[in-house]
Task: inverse folding
């Protein structure tokens, strides 16, 4: 059993619910009683937080309390309702919310009022994201501030700074082993500098995005240190066991994530106990069956919101709830937890958005996307299948994904990317592949071989990540340019870079650039010389700022200039095309296995996007295009084009055509 916790905690709250944990009733009498209780709870919390009755801040919080607190109470009780101290826990959470609202800066409260209930701001066709490591891209936070003019030149409206909080060196997992959520890594700057940067970014129309690493902490976090010392309170912040009995039981169903780091999901402490560490030995999983952990992390989340953060990337969402006898991935309670965190934000920081990071089965990815859960989500399936189509020169799986798995709930958005800071995993569903006669296991083996240049005719220069000969599992590291073949400087490679981005920019959602890719940065094979990086091949695609490449970005005759100009043109055309706002997509069958097609409907017009993934020219036949009027507008050239006799796409070329349905 977990030290300082009951055995029920290892079974999960669902067992407590089945045993008769308190639940809110839907009867009129109980609803009225609940409303009265909630009002009383609000009044007590608001007064203790120092809010003045009748003030604007009091009234704003009271209005949101009436609207959102019933949901929070329901969610919180569904997780922790069997505990005898549930009312005290809920009251403490309400006080945390009221204090955070009372402390929220006035300019952020104005932002809240403008964005509350408004989804158009992040669904705009002018949204463009960039992501970077502060130290590798700009040295420190002041360096990031100095690059704001360049961000505006590029067209960014969203800047994701990779983990920048205090973390142990060199074992930081790229900053994902957090030692303190309230201290910036001293090498990068200070919390005051981060707060000032958020203000300046916002003044320039750029939203700040940071990671909320809430599945685990570093083993050097104060909570973990206290747990290691045996403090009963903090032992219950983590999944700590006195022997191997329960860990062995869990590992019957739980998969290994980083087998090269450690086998299984647990690591042994010096005193003989075992602690859950899903990822690395120095990252300890938090125990959310303990409501004090939820409240503590809600406090950290609201601290970041009041700092001026607009969007939190919710890291490793699939792993946050554990239950014996399950895989401990994407359990129903994981969604309940996210919804509860979301409800906390609707009360105390309503402009804050969540972006889910769920690299799981495509059906499970979609379950995290909801206005009441995560309003934004990475689109790992589209990313992986874009690379799959580039390798196979066949768009069947990618077109299938766009048809079956793209459209999501109103008020939400995809974040579309060609590659990220992380590895590429082949996340397509085996059942989807089987519809095309493809064996999923064999196809992943082929893709891994192709992208590490072990397949005849491959253009790619990737590096294997977490290669597991026992299971055949492997993922791929590499920059966009290196995976596209730009290490040889070929024109085909430049076209591949732009082709893949054309899909990310036009399918619907927020396009996200890994900064440096817009000038064709290549793999950094010297990563093995950096302390703590040698065993993690993902550092090959996290190079230092490529100053020499940025210096060539305006030279149209260079590969850097060609890539930069092509991406800037994608940004400009997208921003001028209202049909590309939002995420709604209508499939379009090109009747050509090498050409991807889809439609983005507007008001009386449609943008037809086409992308040729082959190495030769391809034709989309006149009959295929016969549902549209004879003449279309090419959005890149601004010129009319006839499509009634068919359309020819050059190798690795793409087109965005404004068309009108035939009368």
Result:
């Amino acid at each position: 059993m977990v030290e300082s916790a009951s055995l029920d905690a290892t079974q999960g709250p669902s067992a407590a619910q089945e045993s008769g944990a308190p639940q809110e009733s839907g009867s009129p009498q109980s609803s009225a009683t609940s409303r009265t209780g909630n009002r009383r709870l609000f009044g007590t919390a608001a007064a203790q937080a120092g809010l003045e009755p009748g003030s604007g801040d009091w009234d704003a919080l009271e209005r949101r309390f009436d609207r959102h607190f019933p949901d929070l109470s329901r969610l919180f009780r569904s997780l922790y309702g069997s505990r005898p101290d549930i009312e005290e826990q809920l009251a403490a959470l309400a006080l945390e919310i009221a204090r955070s609202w009372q402390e929220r800066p006035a300019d952020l409260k104005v932002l809240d009022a403008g964005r509350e209930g408004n989804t158009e701001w992040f669904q705009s066709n002018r949204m463009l994201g960039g992501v970077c490591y502060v130290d590798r891209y700009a040295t420190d936070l002041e360096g990031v501030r100095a690059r704001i003019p360049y961000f505006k030149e590029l067209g960014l409206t969203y800047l994701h700074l990779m983990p920048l909080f205090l973390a142990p060196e060199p074992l930081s997992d790229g900053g994902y082993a957090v030692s303190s959520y309230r201290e910036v890594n001293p090498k990068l700057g200070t919390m005051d500098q981060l707060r000032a940067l958020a203000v300046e970014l916002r003044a320039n129309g750029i939203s700040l995005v940071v990671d909320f690493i809430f599945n685990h902490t570093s083993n050097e976090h104060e909570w973990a240190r206290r747990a290691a010392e045996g403090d009963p309170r903090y032992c219950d912040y983590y999944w700590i066991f006195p022997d191997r009995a329960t860990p062995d039981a869990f590992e019957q169903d739980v998969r290994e994530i980083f087998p090269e780091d450690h086998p299984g999901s647990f690591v042994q402490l010096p005193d003989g106990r075992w602690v859950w560490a899903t990822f690395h030995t120095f990252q300890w999983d938090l125990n959310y069956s303990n409501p004090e952990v939820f409240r503590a992390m809600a406090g950290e989340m609201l601290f970041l919101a009041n700092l001026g953060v607009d969007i939190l990337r919710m890291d490793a969402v699939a792993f946050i709830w554990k239950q014996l006898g399950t895989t401990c991935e994407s359990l129903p309670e994981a969604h309940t937890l996210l919804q509860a965190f979301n409800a906390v934000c609707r009360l105390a920081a309503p402009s804050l958005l969540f972006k889910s990071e769920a690299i799981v089965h495509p059906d499970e990815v979609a379950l995290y996307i909801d206005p009441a859960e995560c309003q934004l989500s990475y689109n790992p399936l589209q990313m992986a299948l874009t690379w799959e189509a580039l390798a196979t020169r066949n768009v069947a799986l990618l077109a299938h994904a766009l048809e079956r798995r793209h459209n999501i709930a109103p008020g939400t958005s995809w974040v579309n990317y060609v590659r990220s800071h992380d590895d590429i995993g082949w996340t397509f569903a085996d059942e989807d592949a089987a519809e095309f006669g493809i064996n999923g296991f064999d196809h992943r083996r082929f893709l891994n071989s192709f992208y590490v240049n072990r397949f005849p005719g491959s253009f790619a220069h990737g590096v294997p990540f977490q290669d597991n000969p026992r299971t055949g599992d492997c993922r791929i590291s590499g920059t966009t340019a290196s995976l596209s073949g730009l290490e040889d400087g070929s024109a085909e490679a430049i076209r591949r870079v732009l082709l893949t981005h054309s899909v990310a920019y036009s399918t619907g959602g927020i396009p996200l650039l890994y900064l440096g890719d817009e000038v064709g940065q290549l793999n950094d094979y010297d990563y093995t010389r950096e302390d703590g990086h040698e065993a993690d091949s993902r550092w090959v695609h996290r190079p230092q700022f490529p100053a020499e490449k940025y210096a060539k970005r305006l030279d149209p005759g260079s590969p850097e200039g060609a890539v930069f100009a092509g991406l800037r043109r994608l940004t400009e055309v997208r921003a001028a095309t209202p049909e590309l706002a939002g995420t709604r997509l209508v499939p379009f069958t090109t009747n050509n296995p090498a050409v991807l097609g889809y439609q983005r409907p507007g008001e009386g017009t449609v943008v037809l996007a086409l992308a040729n993934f082959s190495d030769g020219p391809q034709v989309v036949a006149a009959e295929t295009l016969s549902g549209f009027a004879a003449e279309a507008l090419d959005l890149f050239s601004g010129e009319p084009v006839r499509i009634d006799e068919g359309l020819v796409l050059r190798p690795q070329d793409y087109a965005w055509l404004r068309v009108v349905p035939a009368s």
About this structure: The CA atoms of residues 11 and 323 lie 5 Å apart. The first helix runs from residue 8 to 11.
